[in-house]
Amino acid sequence: MLLCGTGRKTKANQEGERKRRSCIEMKKRRIISSI
Question: What's residue 14's pLDDT?
Answer without folding.
Answer: 76
